[in-house]
Every structure is written in C-alpha cells, then in structure tokens.
Amino acid sequence: MCVAVPGRVLAVEAGASQARVAFGATERAVDVTMTPDVQPGDWVITHSGFALRVVSADHAAETLRLFGTLESGGTAGPESRGTGTDYDVGAVGSLGVPPASLP
Fold first, then answer.
1. Can you say how many angstroms the Cα of residue 45 is from the centroid of all Cα atoms in its chain?
2. pTM attached to this predicted model
3. Same domain, 49 and 10
C-alpha cells in the first residue's frame, strides 16, 4: 500500500525544483516540479519525495487526523469526527496546524 503524506513547505529554492518540507519535526527535500506555484507556508501532499499537489490546511489537518486514528486503532468514520479523541493534538500542532483549527 502506498501512502501520500501532507507536509508544510518551509522554503522553496530559487531557480530549482526543490523545497524544504516539514513533516512534524522532520524536514525533507521534496521535488516540486509538479507543483510549480508552491510557496512557503503551503501544504502539499507528497509521495516518494515528490509534491503531488497543494492542499488546504484543513485538508492536511483532516488527513493527519485520519492517520492518527488509524495509528491508534480507532474508527475513522463520520461518528469520530470532531471528538478530539482520535488524534494527538500536540503532534498535529507541531506540524503548524493550530489545534483550534482542527475539526
């Protein structure tokens, strides 16, 4: 199974197709050829070192919440949305999404 992961763009190298992207406390170089208009602060969905598309902060937060639910063995159905019990608010907050903005 392949998983695409959201990350927050920290910096885009001028004249290059690379960006520094944060995945929690980890930073990685990511190829942004497929997302040429990406800017620092944007959220991108990445897979295998490539940014596939730019997404909203809400989309990134929901994806991270669902990852947390899967990791904890909880349910990911509509009944779990907004409960605040299925993800680690501190971990998501460290990704740059303020906990107050989470569902």
1. 6
2. 0.67
3. yes
